[in-house]
Amino acid sequence: MNVSDTEIVNSILMEDGMEPVNEPEDAEVIFVNTCSIRDNAEERVWNRLKEFKALKREKDGDLTVGVLGCMAERIRDKIMEKEELVDLVVGPDAYRDLPKLLADVDDGRKAVNVLLSLEETYADIKPVRRNDNGVSAFVTIMRGCDNMCAFCVVPFTRGRERSRDAESIIDELEQLSNQGYREVTLLGQNVNSYDDGEHSFADLMYKASQVDPEMRIRFSSPHPKDFPEELLQIISEQPNLCNYIHIPAQSGNNAVLERMRRPYTREQYLDLVEKMREIIPGVTLSTDIISGFCDETEEEHKDTLSLMAKVKYDLAYMFSYSERGRTLAERKYEDNVPEEVKKRRLSEIIEQQMNIQEELNNEEIGRRHLVLVEGTSKRSDEQLCGRTDTNKMVVFDRPDHIGKGDYVEVTISDCTSATLMGDFIKKSSIKEFSQEKVAV
Ligand code: SAH
Ligand code: SF4
């Protein structure tokens, strides 16, 4: 989401006559786009700001430093007064105000706008994508969150839920397709709660699938409460809607889920998983897990392990609980699971997950996949990498005349817990591959 927001900020600043540079040393203005979701995200930002303070000294003060995003809203006073690290603080709904705020800084004032909006979706702003691979792009379709999970700071830093109109999204997808992008990830804090007044998320996904049959569509991050059967059917039927779904569980225990204020039980969650696998055969699943939430007992932790063992996720984002100011958990519960217990539980969760991933990846050996080439592999220029429809990274030897943005068919030959190795078969397309699948 921050990558996508930065692309919006690029656009606003370049429209105002500014030019991007590649090195901090060459900049007159530096913005740090920040995240508040966990304490270590914030720690990283503080360290970065200290580096920029040193740079500012080297440049005799001829450098403006600004904080954008979620941290801006949360700790503006600390940032502005105590630390004296920053000249300007701008929250996620106030980016249109940046040129004016920069002018205030030029006039010798500190500048702040952290107002949250009920309407802002930046729908009319054409993001300037400077750092992507030219193959995959992010498109933000909704912003904010109304769910108020007990542990989460997002509703406080990003405000209420609002959706961008479908027409502007489809226009952007058409432009991306014309520019040669082959994959788009639709983004939102609760992306599948999308509702622009006329279209549901299922409607939007269908429309998105029709823009360019050779452009893959993914989405992130959805919430388990908004997966009607209609949506799963559409994903199953349209070959360019990827068969990969992220369903954040957070915990596998009902009492913890209730304390977290997640609106489902373990049983309902498992029913949803079953329904997804029934309607979308071969779908891969990933999740988010928090270990050591307030009052979590050893038994409750074991329920999370058992949920994960039962579902067998292809991928999981696993965190230890980090208390955030203003959240319900901070006000109502005690952050009473000792740090070393949280860490130990987290390692148990990670270890089990790595074993499951390796087991699932081993089952991939011998299977044929359609891979969208994203570029050369990190290890060697002689190898290419890209993802399957099911979101698994595949590395394979570079054949002649194949490059970024091509679809290729590969047979999986080997794996680790994180990556699949493949043998190139032929250049292909979504259409060709899905017809072959039907024929099989
Ligand atoms: N809207 C999505 C999640 C977005 S936040 C959903 O509700 O499913 C991304 C992930 O960060 C969350 O799923 C959660 O696992 C993690 N997270 C959020 N707040 C956290 C906290 N206080 N401590 C640890 N992890 C947290
Ligand atoms: Fe945070 Fe997601 Fe819950 Fe919203 S739904 S409060 S973003 S965890």
Automatic annotation (TrEMBL):
Stretches assigned to the MTTase N-terminal domain: 1-107
Domain Radical SAM core, first and last residues per copy: 131-359
GO function terms (MF aspect): 4 iron, 4 sulfur cluster binding; metal ion binding; tRNA-2-methylthio-N(6)-dimethylallyladenosine(37) synthase activity
Record bears the keyword Electron transport: no
Catalytic activity, EC: 2.8.4.3
SUPFAM superfamilies the record matches: Radical SAM enzymes
Catalytic activity: N(6)-dimethylallyladenosine(37) in tRNA + (sulfur carrier)-SH + AH2 + 2 S-adenosyl-L-methionine = 2-methylsulfanyl-N(6)-dimethylallyladenosine(37) in tRNA + (sulfur carrier)-H + 5'-deoxyadenosine + L-methionine + A + S-adenosyl-L-homocysteine + 2 H(+)
Cofactor annotation: [4Fe-4S] cluster
Binding site for [4Fe-4S] cluster: 145, 149, 152
Keywords carried by this UniProt record: 4Fe-4S, Cytoplasm, Iron, Iron-sulfur, Metal-binding, S-adenosyl-L-methionine, Transferase, tRNA processing
Location(s), subcellular: Cytoplasm
Start and end residues of each TRAM domain: 362-426
CDD domains: Radical_SAM (cd01335)
Pfam family, one: TRAM
Cofactor: binding details: Binds 2 [4Fe-4S] clusters. One cluster is coordinated with 3 cysteines and an exchangeable S-adenosyl-L-methionine.
Function according to Swiss-Prot or TrEMBL: Catalyzes the methylthiolation of N6-(dimethylallyl)adenosine (i(6)A), leading to the formation of 2-methylthio-N6-(dimethylallyl)adenosine (ms(2)i(6)A) at position 37 in tRNAs that read codons beginning with uridine.
Family: Belongs to the methylthiotransferase family. MiaB subfamily.
Name this polypeptide is given: tRNA-2-methylthio-N(6)-dimethylallyladenosine synthase
Gene name per UniProt: miaB
